[in-house]
Specification:
There is one protein chain. With 479 residues, the chain is α/β, with parallel strands linked by helices. It has two domains: 112-339, TIM Barrel (Alpha-Beta Barrel); 347-474, Beta Barrel (Lyase, Ornithine Decarboxylase, Chain A, domain 1). It is built from twelve helices and 21 strands. Strands 4, 14, 15, 16, 17, 18, 19, 20 and 21 form a nine-stranded mixed β-sheet that branches. Strands 5-6-7-8-9-11-12-13 form an eight-stranded parallel beta barrel, surrounded by six helices. Helix 2 runs parallel beside helix 9 (316-329), helix 5 (170-179) crosses helix 6 (188-201) and helix 8 packs parallel to helix 9 (316-329). The two termini are 46 Å apart. Bound molecules: pyridoxal-5'-phosphate. The site of pyridoxal-5'-phosphate has 17 residues, from helix 10. Pyridoxal-5'-phosphate binds at residues 120, 123, 141, 164, 225, 261, 264, 299-302, 337-341, 434. GO terms for molecular function: diaminopimelate decarboxylase activity. Belongs to the Orn/Lys/Arg decarboxylase class-II family. LysA subfamily. Its cofactor is pyridoxal 5'-phosphate.
């Protein structure tokens, strides 16, 4: 089950499409230069059945690596030294240079395209990290008013920001319109609120239609967003209704593009190509109605190698190369919204072993970290690689790695082969940069941990204070 969220083994469901010429399903022969028009397409699940040539395999290149001395290092810093020097554990440990390298990979991939890299702040909202990403040239993808406020505080250019969400609130929309960020239209009532926000702000707003392309992203159901039953986006059958509404509000709305976001942890770039083909078909239809669309936003979603088992996963270059021609064929600007693939692999949750126990059939390593700090394994059975930070010749056994939280769902990893650690041994949960700290809680009054990064010169710098018990009591002051 641990493999579900990032599974690479996938059995394609039947290719269920109704096309004008069913003997030539367009996905079997992408024909981007021919400007395909698929007006009678009935969209069910688009299934990618082709294999794409990926960037040639490289040795596993990671900011966290075991050195010949058997210790784990983050860039040049021994993680054990970090454990010994910080005042509170567990803690999140990032590599700032790895964040830079990840952004550079996207920038290189996008060379020659007019594009915006909108970093999805929901993946990790540490202010220092988002400031760093802004300095590297990123825009921001926002899903709440507070994320918008944080992006503004971090100095983001509002014209490189996109406000997403299926339940955006009027006040937040007003702020978005005032600041001049792009707003994605998600539903009929969302459009109504956007029009109202524009009137309140006294300003026209640049909008993109978030179309649900009904593409199966082949990921865990909880992180799939672009298929028919998802709560996100407008139904493609309603496109004409939305176009008429936009036309009816020329003083409020400026339709500049179309958006889709298929899901997260996607490990086949063909899926993005399939979606891009569908989206340019919609763009053709929208342009045919006289709208001057200039943006295709294909969302985020590229997966990462959570297993550390040598799999060859698509890179940003692979992703962009599969959609490049399609984008160019329509003279579009490309917006992408990566979160996980920019930040996940830059970080570990660093824990210490509290003790080892067995119930006779199962062995447990109990650590100080838990589902409160890192909930992905408990929430959707996600696999994150776990290892000890120091060399050990102790007997190797199979363990569940669990926290101290009073829930049986409190585990960080199941059935892991590890040397039996002694009390106090450092243990890391890898790839913890995305959807870990940002999804953390204070359940069981385990206060949120501090965050550190290793800088280019190898120094360890705190980038967020750990929360304290006094922080908790502050919510009850003067009541
Ligand atoms: C609309 C939207 N864009 C971008 C992202 C970022 O996705 P990821 O972190 O998988 O790149 C998300 C996350 O699910 C999202 O909902």
């Amino acid at each position: 089950m641990a493999a579900v969220a990032n599974s690479l083994s996938y059995s394609p469901s039947p290719f269920t499409k109704s096309l004008k010429n069913p003997s030539k399903p367009f996905l079997s022969k992408p024909c981007v230069t021919l400007k395909p028009s698929f007006k009678n397409l009935r969209l069910t699940a688009v299934v990618s059945e082709k294999t794409t040539t990926l960037t040639p395999p490289k040795a596993f290149d990671h900011c966290f690596s075991k050195s010949d001395d058997g210790f784990l290092y983050c860039e040049g810093l021994k993680v054990q030294d970090a454990i010994d020097s910080v005042e509170k554990r567990p803690f999140y440990l990032y590599s700032k240079p790895q964040i830079t390298r990840n952004v550079e990979a996207y920038k290189q991939a996008l060379e020659g395209l007019d594009s915006i890299i909108g970093y999805a702040i929901k993946a990790n909202n540490n202010l220092k990290i988002i400031e760093h990403l802004r300095k590297l040239g990123c825009g921001a993808v926002l899903v709440s008013g507070n994320e918008l406020r944080l992006a503004l505080k971090a100095g983001y250019d509002p014209t490189k920001c996109i406000f997403n969400g299926n339940g955006k609130l009027l006040d937040d929309l007003v702020l978005a319109v005032q600041e001049g960020v792009f707003v994605n239209v998600d539903s009929e009532f969302d459009l109504e609120n956007i029009v109202a926000a524009s009137r309140i702000a006294g300003k026209k707003v640049n909008v993109l239609l978030r179309i649900n392309p009904d593409v199966d992203p082949q990921v865990h159901a909880y992180v799939a967003t672009g298929n028919k039953n998802s709560k996100f986006g407008i139904r493609n059958e309603k496109l004409q209704w939305f176009l008429d509404e936009v036309k009816a509000h020329p003083n409020e709305l400026n339709l500049v593009g179309a958006h889709c976001h298929l899901g997260s942890t996607i490990t086949k770039v063909d899926i993005f190509r399939d979606a891009a083909l569908l989206m340019v078909n919609y763009i053709d239809q929208i342009r045919a109605e006289g709208f001057e669309l200039s943006y295709l936003n294909i969302g985020g979603g590229l997966g990462i190698d959570y297993y550390h088992a040598g799999a060859i996963l698509p890179t940003p270059m692979d992703l962009i190369n599969t959609v490049r021609e399609i984008v160019v064929s329509r003279g579009l600007k490309l917006i992408i919204e990566p979160g996980r693939s920019l930040i996940a692999n830059t970080c570990c949750l660093v824990n210490r072993v509290t003790g080892v126990k067995t119930n006779g059939t199962k062995n447990f390593i109990v650590i100080d970290g838990s589902m409160s700090e890192l909930i992905r394994p408990s929430l959707y059975d996600a696999y994150q690689h776990i290892e000890l930070v120091s060399p050990s010749d102790a007997e190797i056994s199979t363990f569940d790695v669990v926290g101290p939280v009073c829930e049986s769902a409190d585990f960080l990893g199941k059935n892991r082969e590890l040397p039996t650690p002694s009390k106090g041994t450092g243990l890391v949960v890898h790839d913890a940069g995305a959807y870990c700290m940002s999804m953390s809680s204070t359940y069981n009054l385990k206060m949120r941990p501090p965050e550190y990064w290793v800088e280019e010169d190898g120094s360890l710098v705190k980038i967020r204070h750990g929360e304290t018990f006094d922080d908790h009591l502050r919510f009850f002051e003067c009541l």
